């Protein structure tokens, strides 16, 4: 478990740094979910928002477990190395996107739209949200919304070659995204405005790119760790 702590910290930070992307992808949805809470339930809004996000994060962990099983099956093979290289390239692409320098990663999000077309009608039937279990289930469905940041992190987590570790890494990543989306749901305009600032987005993008370079197999990893 001690060996996993640096990776868990990295996953948590990656979720925090991806907050700007989360606002673009899920901020509007979070606002819509908040408005979907009936007036008589507004006093329970915070708990319902927590349930939304808990369901979403559990979906990330489930996806990490499932794809982690595939990573475990090909561990110590050239396929595992290829997965890690692809994950690193996706993370670098995400950094470029967050910094506003290249938006090619958005095309990858189109890969999940076919699945989302089948999930969305089920999610719509859960509205309006009237209970915590309903909010939890809706959040779990929301977790499958196509997202390049999630795909990048998921592939990186799966490349660790251990299904349980992949699930824990995706759980940590999801917890990292929690503050931004919870703040958005509670209409924390200052937090949203801060994360939309150009300097913050560029700094976050550069850090994600460095993380992608660190993920890329090679001797440069030791140099990056030292700096």
TrEMBL record:
Segments spanning the bilayer are 12-37, 57-75, 81-103, 135-156, 168-188, 200-217
Alphabetically sorted, this entry's keywords are: Membrane, Transmembrane, Transmembrane helix
Which organism is this entry from? Pseudomonas tructae
- The name under which this protein is listed is Sulfite exporter TauE/SafE family protein
Q: Where is the signal peptide?
A: none
**Which residue intervals define the domain Urease accessory protein UreH-like transmembrane in the entry?**
11-213
